[in-house]
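Before the break, one more example. Copy the sequence into your notebook; we will annotate it together after we see the structure.
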Amino acid sequence: MKTPLALLAATALLLGLAWLFAPEPDPQLLAPRTDLPWQIRVNPDGSLHVFDLDIGRSTLREASAKFGPPEGVALFQHQDGRIDLEAYFGKVHFGPLKARVVARLAADDAEKQALLKQATDRKGSPTGDWKYPLPDHLLDTLQNHRVEAISYIPGTRSLEPDFFLARFGRPAAQLKEGENARRWYYPDKGLSILIDDKGYEVLEYTRPDALQVPEQARPYP
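Here is what the structure looks like once it is written out:
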């Protein structure tokens, strides 16, 4: 049976009106992404641009605007005595990608010792490090602290090495860490990647001049 011309005309009119009065698409959804983990560049001042932030120059306030409010802040005391001040953001979404993000903040030894006295607890870890959670109200006082490094832990574990080779290229050096893991080093990118066959991968970003490649690391084959 043939469709009446009046019905076709009415359908065309409705479709035209729907297109005419449809809301404008969000420009952010149409713009190409600039914050993916492999979109890295080194700025003239030596800071590292990644995730739309400049590591070594951007502050916790700017990181919070990008990743959302931190879930908490803590001090981490390593076995060698070093203490890091870190803000952790929990799960962060970059388009289809999901990851946990941790930002290491700049602070001198005196400030770290003062913060240590305000810790609410002490928790151990399998690596022998100690975690000292800090009260949430301290986040307000840390907003202008610079971000020295970012750790990015993809939500998908045991990613294949080819996944990283395709996006970051060949590393300059690598170091075996345990039976199932090795770390790749990209000194020109300020990046190291822990590849773990049994666990989660960890991408660590810092200023290239702050990335230390261990002497025992060997050239990538």
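The CA atoms of residues 69 and 111 lie 22 Å apart. Residues 29-219 form one domain. Try to locate both features in your own notes.
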